[in-house]
Amino acid sequence: MGLLVFHDKTSNRIRDPHEDIYQFLHFDLKYGNLNWKGFGIGGNIVFQPDTGLPRGSNGSFYYCANLSENTRRIVVSPMGHSRIEPHQC
């Protein structure tokens, strides 16, 4: 599991072979898992080139711990604001 940051020149929300990769972060989560559930098309977050905001890519990250009640939901608004809430996995 990880995070891929790339320039989506074709705006198809899929990395094509000719599109530059800016960064890839590998998540080595030992004590739980992290998932993204977004609204709209696809399971990704698109930051707009004119403002840098994730307009149309609102949704939530869900962290579910394996052995504890320490589970959280991180809500991301269409304007990029976030808040953390308790969550049941």
From TrEMBL:
It comes from the Bacteria. Pfam families: GspH (PF12019). Its main location: membrane. Keywords: Cell inner membrane, Cell membrane, Membrane, Methylation, Transmembrane, Transmembrane helix. It is a single-pass membrane protein. It is found in: Cell inner membrane. This is Type IV fimbrial biogenesis protein FimT. It comes from Acinetobacter puyangensis. The lineage of its organism: Bacteria, Pseudomonadati, Pseudomonadota, Gammaproteobacteria, Moraxellales.
